[in-house]
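Hello support,

Our group uses your service weekly, and this is the first time we've seen a run hang past the timeout. The protein is Alkaline phosphatase D family protein. I'm not sure whether the cause is the sequence or the server load. Input pasted verbatim:
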Amino acid sequence: MTELDRRTLLRAGLVAGAGVAGGALLGGAGANAAPAWRPAGRPTLTHGVQSGDVTADSALVWTRADRPGRMLVEVSRRPDFRGARHLRGPVLGADCDFTGKVRLRGLPDGERLHYRVRVESLERHGLASEPLTGTLTTAPGRHRRRDVKFVWTGDIVGQGWGIAPDFGGMSIFRAMRETRPDFFLCSGDTVYADGPLVESVTLPDGRIWRNLVTAEKSKVAETLAEYRGQFAYNLLDRHLREFAADVPQINQWDDHEVTNNWYPGEILDDPRYTERRVDVLAVRARQAFHEWLPVPDDGPLYRRIPYGPTLDVFVLDMRTHKDPNDGNTYADPKRGLLGREQREWLIRELKRSKATWKVIANDLPIGVVVPDGPNAQEGVAQGDPGAPAGRELEFAEVLRATHRAGVTGMVFLTADVHYTAAHHYDPSRAAVGDFTPFWEFVSGPAHAGAFGPNALDGTFGPQAVFVHAPPRANTSPAEGFQHFGEVTINGESEALTVHLKDRDGATLWTKTLPAPTRRP
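Update from on-call engineer: The timeout came from a worker crash unrelated to the input. Re-ran successfully.
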């Protein structure tokens, strides 16, 4: 990863749009297909461009080539790139699957910028790919107040529902793009590495869902190449590529990037796998995750992303330190799914945050019961409405510590359960009273089977204020019940508004939270 230092402050800027040519797939070729391998001639950028983890003065820019080459990036305020700043990036090689990232620094805050990416041949200096372009919006500076808008969802290409051109592909990404958000929060399950695709599925009404299928998506992922292929597959969809080129991402790590409901140390009892050590699979999956998404390569997966004076985003990692899935009723405070270091980091950073709103991206919901078979629990809750036990102990500690420190403006955003809902938590309804009331908003899936609703655990007093769930389990994307959420923060009043939306962008439910009164 290469950096653009502060001396390269921008003065200028891009032509919008990015294209991907056709190529061969097991399930047929079409407009969503990526280019075939080209051993000679000009290099080709195979899967578009992306940006991520944007702050007031920095951003990551990503691409992938069809062969070894040098990544070249231009950045500008202007769409014609006159006077653009040029950056010579890393060499993209086979060791990283020909993917690469550049860290741009010294960017102007609160502005929409244009970037253009090429890859130059290592064999012939000056011979470069056709450029692909994108845009990104930097966060407002610490003292610069303006409106902020972002979208979130999760769960992409799950339960056997892949890219089906006859049904419009992953059109939810077009709907999210049309809202013109500042950034996109993907709340985990960025891919389904454990969800093979078949070429056709008969829907309940007799229609045929025809998947595009690649070799890597025809079986569960086990090898590094197969994990890489999960991310490559999703980018065959033109709606996702166009969205990724125009909207910076914040990506979260969950279970299906590796395998369903995994935890460290697990040994799989699943005949589909020849490698059953989850720790081995997770190393390969994590490498592919870092290679194929615009996420930082250094530091832990949990992180805080500041977004001006009104917003801090806290991205949790609820997998790397997760304890085994059992009944989740233990009393051991040393266990949990955050781990001591992350738990202490979260409490410390929430106390330090000066932002009006502290949005906590929790890829597993707090009060929703998510079983893992008949005798084990996957999530935080376990269905016992009494005093905190098991993984609830960690969140009781976080909520208690922040409440006693006077922290305000905490909002939780999640996906995972494949429906959309608004949950309000209040100590007056809870088995534990030492916390400040808060909201948790659920939205998803983006393109997967729809499920739910799940039962709520009464420990923290959740109330389901709104729920939109399908009539049966694994409802296909063709039948709707795909969801995303939109959050806007008013730059003047600092009020936060949540819109829960369907796949076409229609608003199903809205809630406005006034700016919290800061406690002494």
